[in-house]
Design goal:
- With 147 residues, this protein is an alpha+beta fold.
- Helix content is 28%, strand content 22%.
- The protein has one domain: Alpha-Beta Plaits, CATH 3.30.70.
Length: 147
């Protein structure tokens, strides 16, 4: 994870990278959480950049590839590639940009459902807002409400 963060900071037109502490979560598979699979380490990076979102996403995929990630074919852009992976860099949000382009879904369509995204994001940016959802702290509180 440290090497990928260094790679992010070295990208052209990137001025700053702030990163949360990593947290461990249960592997998430199509059937749901899989405690028998190796746990995931999750962190959120806030990147200050002048790169266009599509260009940034391309760089994220290149960093994944350099660290051994192989992207498999998926049935649709809205379904994650569920293979085990060495590194998964998602573009969760880019300011207030909203995109339904299958090549660049913004904000990430499942971000508001993921404690392991919202928690670390809030730790790095207490005032964070997820476009179309609202404040990250409120979204996290809703997620953690007992049913």
């Amino acid at each position: 994870m440290t090497a990928a963060i260094r790679d992010l900071a070295r990208l052209p037109l990137v001025d700053e990278v702030r990163v949360s502490e990593p947290i461990e979560s249960v592997a998430l598979k199509p059937e749901g959480p899989d405690a028998a699979a190796p746990a995931y380490l999750n962190a959120v990076a806030i990147v200050t950049t002048r790169l266009a979102p599509s260009v940034l996403l391309g760089y994220l995929h290149a960093i994944e590839q350099r660290h051994g990630r192989v992207r498999s074919e998926r049935r649709s852009a809205r379904e994650p590639g569920w293979e085990d992976r060495t590194l998964d860099l998602d573009l969760i949000a880019y300011g207030d940009v909203v995109s339904d382009d299958p090549a660049l879904l913004l904000p990430h369509p499942r971000a508001a459902e993921r404690d392991f995204v919202l928690g670390p994001w809030l730790a790095v940016d207490p005032d964070a807002v997820l476009p179309g959802v609202g404040r990250v702290d409120a979204a996290l509180a809703r997620l953690r409400e007992p049913e």
